[in-house]
Amino acid sequence: ATCRSDYNSTLAARRRLYGPNTSLSYEQPLMIVRGSGTYLYDDQGVEYLDCVNNVSHVGHGNPEVASAICSQLHTLNTNSRYLHPGLPAYTEALLNTLNGRPAFPPPPAASAPPPEAPEPASPPPPAPARTSAASASAAIAPTTTTTTTTTAQAGPDLSVLYLVCSGSEANDLALRLVAASRPGATHVAVMGGAYHGHTAALIPLSPYKFWGRGGEGRAPHVHVVPCPDPYRGEHLDGAAAARAVLEAARRAGGRLGAFFGESLLSCGGQVVPPAAYMRDLYGVFRSEGVVLVADEVQCGFGRCGAAFWGFQALGVRPDIVTMGKPIGNGYPMAALATTRALADAFAAPGMEYFNTYGGSTAAVAAGLAVLRVLTQECLQQRAAAVGDYLLAGLQRLVAEHEVLGEARGLGLFVGLEVVADKASRRHAPVTARWIKERMKARRVLLSTDGPYDNVIKMKPPLVFGFREVDVLLSQLSEVMARELTAAVRSELLAQEEGHWAAVMAPRQAAYRDNERRLFAGGAVARL
Ligand code: PMP
């Protein structure tokens, strides 16, 4: 353990030397010096349960991934201009998952029935009573078992891969592919609350930023599809939403080239879109030739439990998939997968594609190790079982506490909606932040998000288990029952009003204006 003067000088140096708007968590930031599995340790040796870090997908400090990277660094780390057997091995494994096959299929000779997937360590918990959002998603079959295909699901394999270094780079590259295949169709549709990256091209595609603090508003070439809000019964007609943005692009004198959408929205507030909504949206866009980009940076790699990819859980087939965060368990790498036709259109003008670190030998070693660990430890199945157990427990807390409006999610992608009260369903960001801070004092790390910052996010490393769920639930239950007294609640409610007027009301006005514009002054689509 270091002494507190180290903490103070590190904090002071950070403030003095680093960009002042660089994101830092918590009122009193943590100095984390070690991680193991789903636990983090601060400079004093205090252990924290990490319920948010979806980058350390197979666990902080995973030894297999660390040693794969390390030994590759000792042997060779070059760019992808040389042939290396690691690259095709990794690419095939990753593309397998995107096309509904296991990453490492058994050799062809093994035509016997596949072995049963091993169960997670603890006994399966009772099935939870699902919320409307979760049940909509759970009721559908993954693409791998679908026999009839609709327009939303039809399409050639995702058979070509580009390796890049960050989620932002993957989405930026997606924009270039769209431009190559749909020249002149420069308008783009995105979901409300979406975040797609930090570059100059992607902030304008991220309502989370352009309608958030310091944002400059919507650019004329960007059209915002209102995010479905099953909890409040709003915007559940995907086909109407798609038609409205197509028309808005036309009215603005443009043509829609692409739709960028996270399969499950994370910064947008841990939203699981109803499967029918997404299929209808995809169906209308596809029939107009709009390129469908699924941003799986947050929700991919087995997190949803029901399928390896979010789009598979919803039963849709994108033309481009962008991936990042968990792909290298913290090694900076990301990827874009697409069809042969789109890749050929991108290559047609003759300009070479090169990315110094994308597809480097070490990145490929990291990615392959992550896929191996995911497969060997059956982490997708584990996410399904542990996620169900977590959701059931959260739903019990929702039933008991006035300010918990809804628990929703799929697998280990879970959100808890904090509201002023159950009747109004008014967003309560101050209360959400207070819960997050109280949980930190109890050594449980959570975050808040959503367009109104009132959703408590849970997206832990997939090694999170039943024991960790029990700790999370019991600490949350204590905060709600013992610390959120009537006096505290009324104090928080008073703060909510001022905060809403100053920060959230302008944001809500931007979303409402957009809805009026899209639906020509007509009623907001409600259930
Ligand atoms: N897409 C989504 C959905 C994301 O959540 C993020 C990062 N939060 C990005 C893209 C950008 O990824 P990166 O930070 O690796 O550039």
TrEMBL record:
InterPro entries: Aminotrans_3, Aminotrans_3_PPA_site, PyrdxlP-dep_Trfase, PyrdxlP-dep_Trfase_major, PyrdxlP-dep_Trfase_small. Residues 129-151 have a biased composition (Low complexity). The keyword ATP-binding does not apply. Keywords: Pyridoxal phosphate. Residues 103-128 have a biased composition (Pro residues). One of its GO terms (molecular function) is transaminase activity. One of its GO terms (cellular component) is mitochondrion. It holds the Pfam family Aminotran_3. The keyword Cytoplasm does not apply. Residues 98-151 are annotated as: Disordered. Belongs to the class-III pyridoxal-phosphate-dependent aminotransferase family. This is Uncharacterized protein.
